[in-house]
Specification:
This protein is an alpha+beta fold. Helices cover about 25% and strands about 35% of the residues.
Amino acid sequence: MENNKELLQTKTQLILKEAETLGASQAQATITLTSRALTRLANSIIDQNVADKHAKVRVIVYFGQKNGSVEFEVMDDNEIKQAVEQAVALARISPENKDFKSLPSPMPYASDFDVSRQVCETTYNTTPEKRAEFAKLAIDTAHAVDSRVFAVAGYVQNVTVEKTVANSLGIDAYEMRTYSSTEMTVLAKDDKEETAGWATDARRDVSKLKVESVARTAAEKAANGFGLKYLDPGEYELVLEPAAAGDLAYFTTYIGFGARRYQEYMSFLRDRIGEQMFSEKLDMWDNPLDQRLVGASLFDDEGVPHRRVDLVDKGVVKNLVYDTLTATKDGVESTGNHAKVWGPAGPFARHIIVGEGNSSLEEMISETKRGVLVTHFHYMNTVNPTEGVLTALTRDGAWFIENGEVKHPLHTLRFTDAIPRFFKEIEMIGKYSDFLEIPPNGMVPAMKLPSFKFSGSSKE
């Protein structure tokens, strides 16, 4: 099994050398090389089989407390040098960042982290024929569930990611990992309406990918989706399947627990560290080193070692996640959470785990008098980050629950509610799902909330 470690480290050293030649006091290079092979389904046929390789390069140079950064996707030496020149030009005209002291120095990585487990040779060598077998299995499984199933859409993919980080203070880190994933949307229709069901799974080892279970689950949701009714806006009990609970957990960490947002007064947790804001049933942490996760990782985009960070302990807000810059500002150590997600780079929790409970989804439903069961959410966005207000749509399956029974499926609903309110009380927490997800969602179980605000429906 080949890797590109030598090539990538040669390129990062070229970047550092060029930055030094141009007078930079410090410099950092991060290269992520992603090799992706994907088989896509539509209308119950394979309609696309593609493979690509992308190198994402990020360069940051410092002249004292001035900095400039560029991102690009080229590996040619001359173009790399031109990109470094652009970063230098930006740095020279940029204002000083008084909070910057230094890029990170080398630190030891977790000694008990088994690097060999990050890579699966079977996944690395997955062929188009193997993905086609999975695709056929998904199609056949879904259509066998119900005669009203008319289309299976989705994908099966295998991915290899290599990341290297180097800086002028001596960091020179490299890691390689593989993963496979599948996501299926199954459509069904009769003479009156069309329904949809969805499921997903991810594994480091493609041979363990639950394609058949994913297709069956999605098809069953579609088959159970006939007889759609509208639901009036209002407050309802809420039963969250693991994917839906994961959506809410991720946005909770994204807008609340990053130190940059906290320092810039954009976090709803501002001045509330140490306070019990959530239900005592809620334990949540970020741990990229947990090798149960598909995306387990050794270091962040600065080359700083990952560590476990406890975010919520029995409902009490415990810690933020930091990178080097934000840690320096607060006089603490980086937690190894630097990443560029959307917008400016900063610290983010991207390997989220929520402590599981003992309740089954069936028990949650049986304990619900008047509520909604949600598969997952779509197009989640922040309405007011300082209050923790989110909005999103239900997707591919939501059902009305009355007196402990699932009564009928619901047309698409929109929720608008605040994290501190709907996570203030959690009635029940389930076990981890049989399905896994790629980061940022790590392991988040199903939940039952006593109150959740739906602000509209598709009829409006």
